Amino acid sequence: MAAELDRKSLTIAVDAMSGDKGFAEAIEGCSLAIEQGLQARLLLVGREDDLQSATSHKNLAGHPVDIVHADGIVAMDEKPARALRRCRDSSMWAAINSVKQGQTAGVVSCGNTGALMAMARLQLRMIEGVHRPAVSALWPTVNGHAVVLDVGANVEVDAEQLVEFAIMGEAYFRALTGKDRPAVGLLNVGEEDLKGNTLIRNAATILREADPEMNFIGFVEGNDISGGGIDVVVTDGFTGNIALKTAEGTARMIGAWVKEALTANLMAKAGAALMMPSLKSLRTKMDPSSVNGAPLLGLGGLVVKSHGGAEANGIASALLRTESLAAHPFLDEIASTLTKVRERAESVQVEDETSSVAAE
Amino acid sequence: MAAELDRKSLTIAVDAMSGDKGFAEAIEGCSLAIEQGLQARLLLVGREDDLQSATSHKNLAGHPVDIVHADGIVAMDEKPARALRRCRDSSMWAAINSVKQGQTAGVVSCGNTGALMAMARLQLRMIEGVHRPAVSALWPTVNGHAVVLDVGANVEVDAEQLVEFAIMGEAYFRALTGKDRPAVGLLNVGEEDLKGNTLIRNAATILREADPEMNFIGFVEGNDISGGGIDVVVTDGFTGNIALKTAEGTARMIGAWVKEALTANLMAKAGAALMMPSLKSLRTKMDPSSVNGAPLLGLGGLVVKSHGGAEANGIASALLRTESLAAHPFLDEIASTLTKVRERAESVQVEDETSSVAAE
User: Which residues 213-242 in chain A show a CB within 8 A of chain B?
Assistant: First the structure.
């Protein structure tokens, strides 16, 4: 594996105008990231008048920061096709362009996902042979995090795309954690080889036979995602999106129940006061901002999507993740593994007929 | 709507031998259900020698209880097709047969789901026009419960099946809660009409145009399931199974974190002691046994599947739910609504081409 790059030699672009919270939050996020150890140079992209204040901001004042002016802002509800035509003067377009020009090693944006994906595809192209970018989620588990993909970009997929997701997710997890052979599983309705539909069984066959270097553990179920035994969970964008939002809804509901229990009466409040430190660590574990920032995988450059409503701490997480990824040759790894697996997959026998086997 | 039946006039069959915990747990579950208000007569099906003890058991002694002997037991890992051929002497077969013969109004089994479904289809047949039974889950929400279906029986579905699930789920929820017009939603990757795939958009069109009596609210997302605004969430068995298990995994992980916070140190333990009553109510909310017991919907008779590992309190929940459902004419409601909607659906225009629109 190639060595990591020196982080100080990198520049990260920040689309500072997109997102629900505006440029002030983006600047605050940059400041927080520096406080938390970010070493890369920053390129803030947006309205010069708004961003000038950043240069005198506490942590940014002593850090290498450049500003590139861009007048336009892509609205959060802009249609991707329209954004492509009408928003070439936007901070989003210019920030992605800095990656294309080799001026920056990656970009973070809190903007409209569809527009970001469309602009990134047009400017950075896809890695050869990848159909469409995949969106991944960093998913809390009992002992760390798993990467789950796709979580929304690809509603209908074929077996080859699931194989692509597996390869991209594996490289992404390796870049994030340094783990050499992450455990990769295919999300299904049962663990037995016969479960699920033809699509998913064919993807399993291809991964098993054409990518022997991968630590592919076969089918996994919904409850395994947070179980801690799998590093990369592969699924189509329909199922992945619903699983992710279902988990978020469940966490929110239980969080509300816990809060209710902690504040139900005076005794409970007194009890909660005593447990303050351990509750704080619970709150940290349940805080979604720590997992904010996911690369759009499959693009020919590094584009990290931050949640539209992310606050400074979420933006800081996304920036630090982007810096780690930019320092790692994971995009090259993806391209070379894809080529290798695709060649070998040509001789793999898969099922022709479509058939399905139920969960029970 | 037809009036409910007098519960004392009903008999419920209990497949007392299937399930991981054996007949003693089933008897304990019956006892607990009687303590909690069950009025129906019970028909315990299984080995007479084992079940005789039930007649002298505390709550069962004063309750109308019959025993029907059946020698065989369907193993939890028995293949459905093999169970159909080889296990005609089993408690499961005999318990379902009591429904077929009109001797009981419904059956509860903790047994092997595949075998239960196969035996029930063969003996009770499907409601006219229903493809396959659907398995539903009772899902905790911020303000009660939602019904989610299918959660595993039908890995691949067509638009007509999603419409069936909606109609069956609506009638089931109405029978459970008395709510006249439950809110029904179709699980998708976004709320806009254009999201998702052709299958799901066609199901929405049919529901909107052919079932104007239904309170169909359109597309809902994963986080809406526990949000409290929807009563019936309709999805295919692949997505539903994964969503359900993902939610279970998330709840288990957060439960472990909460426990950790409550026992982290002496101060936390002292705090937890003070909050005991409110923690107890939290534990009740998170206890899966209260939602145990789901009817296999679409069959020509009432068959309620209890979790294989259910303990007495879970079995009691399933029994009480079966009694409520047996008292309610919901199977007739399903049949008549299906007929009506199917006639009207013939003139509904749906999309021919397949196409999909992503989440973002």
Answer: 221-227, 235, 237-239, 241-242
Q: Tell whether B282 is within 8 A of chain A (Cβ).
A: yes
Subunit contact A277:B271, Cβ cutoff 8 A: no
Q: What is the DSSP letter of A223?
A: G
**Strand arrangement of the beta sheet that strand B183-187 belongs to:** B65-69, B41-46, B11-15, B106-109, B303-305, B294-297, B134-141, B144-149, B232-234, B183-187, B215-220
Q: What is the 3-state secondary structure (H, E, C) of A138-185?
A: EEEECCEEEEEECCCCCCCCCHHHHHHHHHHHHHHHHHHHCCCCCEEE
- ipTM for this prediction: 0.88
B37 interfacial to chain A (CB closer than 8 Å):
no
Report yes or no: B194 at the A interface, CB cutoff 8 Å: no
pLDDT exceeds cutoff 90 at A358: no
- For residue A360, the model assigns a pLDDT of 55
A289 touches B: beta carbon within 8 Å: no
Tens-digit pLDDT profile for residues A239-276: 999 999 999 999 989 888 888 888 888 888 888 888 88
Residues B171 and B240 in one domain: yes
Number of domains in chain A: 2
Claim to verify: residue B280 and residue B136 sit in the same structural domain: yes
Which domain does A6 fall in, by range?
1-124
The alpha-carbon gap from A64 to the nearest alpha carbon of chain B, in Å, equals 34
CATH code of the domain covering residue A140: 3.40.718.10
Q: What is the arithmetic mean of pLDDT over A12-35? A: 95
Over residues A189-206, the pLDDT tens digits come to 987 776 778 899 999 999
Does B249 sit within 8 Å of A222, measured CB to CB? Answer: yes
Predicted pLDDT of residue B301:
97
CA proximity to B154, closest of B117, B105, B108: B117
Q: Which of A90, A124, A158 is the last residue of a domain?
A: A124
Contact between B359 and A279 using a beta-carbon 8 Å cutoff: no
- DSSP secondary-structure letter at A299? B
pLDDT reported for residue A2: 56
